Amino acid sequence: MSAPAAAAEGLAYRPFRDGDLPGVLRLWEEESGWGAITPEKWRRWYVDRPDGPCLVMVAEDGGGRVAGQLVFAPAVVRVDGEPVPAVRVGAPIVERARRRRSVRHPEHPATRLYREGARAAAAAGFRLLYAVPEHGWLPFFRWLGGFAQADPGCLAVAPSPAAAGRARGLRAAPSAGFGAEHDVLWEQAASSFPVRCGLERGADRLRHRIGGHRVLEARDAGGALAGYVAVDRRTGLLVDVLARGPDELAPVLAAALAALAEARGGGAA
User: Fold this and answer.
1) At 249, phi and psi to the nearest 5?
2) How far apart are the first and last CA of the chain?
3) Longest alpha-carbon distance in the chain
């Protein structure tokens, strides 16, 4: 394990150790704004993952207290047909008392956590680093430099019975789980769109990433899987969508919208 990186304000930066768990759980509860998490949830989110455990950087004060954390979650990104080991940067959690300076100051704990974590990720063999930040964090990533940026717009679509007429014979229903047919679907999609740069979406990864969301699968008249749509149960936001090919993407969405409208009309959650 690498030695801690020296820092201003009495903080040292290093990778997470098992003994840090009480400290990071306290940080989540008291400083994150998202509420407390359990050791079991921590393990599920950051350890038991299809692409291996997360690289977690911590900021430690002189008394051994965890004052900040930043998670780098491993993934595999397919880039022009090549699987590339990658990490996704999460949102930093830093004690309020240490947020006085601008986050774009080189000695801000969030900045140091990012820079030390990026170095550790590169040393571990990860070749791509990406983030899906809230819009307010975009200036920070622009300031860091080295990132290609995409800032997509938003589209709101309400479930409507009329969507059934645009589904081209596809019918959607709740998913019963992920398996080999989802591996096949991903390979079909990756070759037919084609996917220039996208997260690998095999069954194991889908189970981990979207298994807790509301997933609707669209199937053709023969029962073959044409695609799926994942919707956040709490917000109703679209989390993921995939189809066998470009021509079926809109019908898959239409089939899912029709199924949502049907469920809403029938009083289903």
Assistant:
1) -65, -50
2) 48
3) 65
Contact 108, 68 (CB under 8 A): no
Euclidean distance between CA atoms 210 and 201, whole angstroms: 10
β-pair partners for 220: none
Spatial CA neighbour of 245 closest among 174, 202, 186, 204: 186
Measuring CA to CA, which residue among 137, 103, 1, 3 is closest to residue 60? 3
Q: Which residues contact 38 (CB under 8 A, 6 or more apart)?
A: 25
Sign of CA dihedral 31, 32, 34, 36: negative
CA angle 245, 251, 256 (to 5 degrees): 115
User: What sections of 36-159 are H helices per DSSP?
Assistant: 39-46, 109-123, 138-144
Q: What is the dihedral of CA 54, 57, 62, 63, to 10 degrees?
A: -30
Q: What is the pLDDT of residues 162-196, one digit of tens each?
A: 888 888 899 999 999 999 999 999 999 999 998 88
Query: Global pTM?
Result: 0.87
